[in-house]
Amino acid sequence: MGKSSNPEKTVIVAGDVTIDWNIATTRREDGAGAAWHTGASTRTFWQRSGAALLADLIEAVAAELRQNKIGDFAVRSSPWFTDPVLPGDPRLHHAYAMWSLHKYGDKPPLDAERPAWRVERFLGLDRANDDADSTGEWHRVPNEPPAPDIVVLDDAGLGFRNHREWWPSAVTAEGQRPWVVIKMARPIAQGELWNHLHRYHAERLIVVMTVDDLRLTEVQVSRELSWEQTAQDLAWELIHNPRVNALSHCAHVVVSFDTAGAFLLSQPTFGEDQLHPVCRLLFDPKTVEGMWTQNHPGGMVGYTSCLTAAVVRQLMCPGSAPDIKRGVQRGIDAMRALHLEGYGVRGAAAPAAKLAFPISLVANELAKDTLPYAEAVVPDAVRRLTQSATTLREDVDGSFWTILENISSNAISDVAQQIVLEGAEAALKGVPLGRFGKLLTVDRREIESFRSIRNLMAEYCRKSHQSRPLSIAVFGSPGSGKSFGITEVAKSVLPGQIEVRGFNLSQFNEVGALHDALHQVRDTGLSGMLPLVFWDEFDTDKLSWLRHFLAPMQDGSFQQGQLTHPIGRAIFVFAGGIYESMESFGHDLTPEMFRDAKGPDFVSRLKGYVNIMGPNRQKGTADPSYIIRRAILLRTILLRDAPQLFERRNGKDVINIDSGVLHALLQASHYKHGTRSMESVVAMSMLTGKSRFERSCLPAIAQLELHVEADQFQSLVQQIELEGELLERLAAAAHKVHCDGKRRDGWKQGPVRDDLKKIDPLLIDYAALPEMYKESNRETVRTIPDKLAEAGYVMIPARSDSQLVEFPKDDIEKLARFEHERWMADKLASGFTLG
């Protein structure tokens, strides 16, 4: 390995080594069969991998640091095989993979003339012969320095972990305190090496692994549902699962999701008000685990080596505390660059492919300072549940966490407006986006439900011989978009192969109509398309239709007279018209009535369900993100029905809309018919030939009343905007009113609050208030227009001090209820609990 002339510091690299045999194949363009043909070419290339590849990559990183005068490190490693080897050499582990050319990227320009070499198929591993002389000197680091600064170990589970004589003396000798970075494969946190490192080096130990290797170590981590669920699963397992929770004692643990993101567990640093490990999720909000590589076909070798080298680079940079988080982000970027570029010469035929890991490319990527990935601190579900147990938010489990909730209650309305104006990707940076065809959602519950359904559909379609339909249910309020959501999910699984059929059971008078519908489903399947069948309002007539679906759902057939008709492959979607959620399905019936209607039998045949949230606030819940859902729906409707309102600015489609109109469309208390009402308000507006959505474009009050509370809607349109000096003056006035009321009730100012003695430290001038309480008064004022609009009033500048409004008692109650709910939501969002 290369050496610095006067190295200040040293890195040692050791571990398991494999020989990778990369078999490049160039297919014939005519797609001929499996017969042997001279037009197809194949070439085999070999390279050192595992710890040997990692050492070469770290050497390249060290060279870059020396060149840029950032650090001066010498890299020492074992004298691994450099001479040509043969397949099957019993001293070595041999890994085999088939490589082929794949499309370079997924967006123009695709560079289609120079596709990348990626893995078509991993063929397996040929392990070394235990009886062979594999304990030679090539396992040990010659001339090992007495006190290296960094020790890097590649533990692939191929023997190194159980041979103490192969380990560097820096990790076995007493008194040594190097940073130790271990790249660990399954089984995780097991073996003699791990036990030793955990006992003697935990405080300066960094573990790097993949989430799939962790999943194969008897831990439960969800896959492809939501970033929040996967991150919380990981936090739970690493901290509480006795199989692997020793990992939480390490300085850092990095769990890779390959090119989509990574999870970082770190011990709290000096000065942090934190007793437990800090868990962070570093992720791409536009994708979820596995999605990026699905969009860029082909496999790759070397992801975890990129990530490990990125972490080691941060240890090699000067500074008292290494920025591991930055290293992880650079590692993800390097993995993506590796995947896109592939091995060897892009576009070359097999004989000239020269397949080899692109060390220089990866080292250069690790030196770049771009940090495009979002970050979220992951709460420990156990502590979060304990902290949330006494709050008023009984609508959700205390452990239910969403990254979207990081948007403060003060900012959520501004974010919603930006979504409509510029799009969700511009407004929701750092928030996971669930995109399924034309459907976009940011609600974690919807994302998880839709991804579960998508996974079910994908698995169903992968199995070509299906004898019965896939049955799922979808619930939501009328007009919430049930059919649209499921249709877009299905089309994202099998684009161009789905035919949608819909039948409204409330319009069927007899079972014969159902049989006719099932015959149409059969005909669709026989035509070669996969029928996506919506059984709308299946829950009408006290669930009387359920019994007629039991046989088609279970057996994939239906009886008509003496004949039994097979249905074939199909996806049955039961769309509720009475019940708005799976949890409420049949709950208005007695257990006996539900059982007689075959409710339990029907539910047992369902493979999944989705509760569609819709544009309105969910009943009985805080649901602060409803306005975000509403904003996404509104922008989708406007783009579809009024595209002339948009213009291209700085790479974004920006809408021209009056601020009052936008405010009313977002803040309307309730859309009477869900999404349909939103669509109708836009459709009724006079937008033809208009390039801006003005107030004059809105429909008349009587027309608005069909879909919203018209008086409140118009009040929202005309609301005054409170900001700047006016906001400060009104906030000071609000505080004065509060203080005058307190003093009138006998309260006095004092250093410590005492409810019995009526002492309040905040009975002071507004200017002297701490900023937290000033902001509380500002928020009270900001919501005055919304409170007034709730009762149908508009706030306008007064012409004199004598103009006072006497509110009727009913309106006073509305305003008081609104203010209490606002105050309570603000306290909960600030971390207060009931006590």
Structure explained in plain terms:
This protein is α/β, with parallel strands linked by helices and 835 residues long. The protein is built from 27 helices and 26 strands. The strands form seven sheets. Strands 4-1-7-8-9-10-11-12-13 form a nine-stranded mixed β-sheet, sandwiched between helices. It has a five-stranded parallel β-sheet with strand order 17-18-21-16-22, sandwiched between helices. Strand 8, helix 3 and strand 9 form a beta-alpha-beta unit. Helix 8 packs antiparallel against helix 9. The N terminus is likely disordered.
Whole-number mean pLDDT: 88
Please give the largest β-sheet.
9 strands, mixed
Structural class by secondary-structure content: alpha/beta
Taking the alpha carbons of the first and last residues, their distance comes to 64 Å
Number of strands: 26
Strand content: 15-25%
Low-confidence stretches: 1-6, 384-398
Strand order in space, largest sheet: 4-1-7-8-9-10-11-12-13
| Shape category | globular
| Number of contiguous helices | 27
Radius of gyration: 32 Å
How much helix is in the residues? 25-40%
SSE arrangement:
Layout: E1 9-15, E2 17-26, E3 41-50, H1 51-67, E4 73-77, E5 93-102, E6 116-126, E7 150-155, H2 169-172, E8 179-184, H3 192-200, E9 205-210, H4 211-215, H5 227-240, E10 252-256, E11 261-266, E12 278-283, H6 291-295, H7 303-316, H8 324-341, H9 359-367, E13 374-378, H10 381-388, H11 412-422, H12 424-427, E14 434-436, E15 439-441, H13 444-462, E16 470-475, H14 482-493, E17 498-504, H15 511-526, E18 530-536, H16 546-555, E19 557-560, E20 563-566, E21 571-575, H17 591-596, H18 599-605, E22 608-611, H19 626-641, E23 646-649, E24 652-655, H20 659-667, H21 675-684, H22 701-704, H23 710-717, H24 724-744, E25 748-749, E26 759-760, H25 771-782, H26 784-790, H27 809-829
Parallel strand pairs: 1-4, 1-7, 2-5, 7-8, 8-9, 9-10, 16-21, 16-22, 17-18, 18-21, 25-26
Antiparallel strand pairs: 2-3, 5-6, 10-11, 11-12, 12-13, 14-15, 19-20, 23-24
Helix pairs in contact: 1-7, 1-9, 7-8, 8-9, 11-19, 13-14, 16-18, 19-21, 20-23, 23-26, 24-25
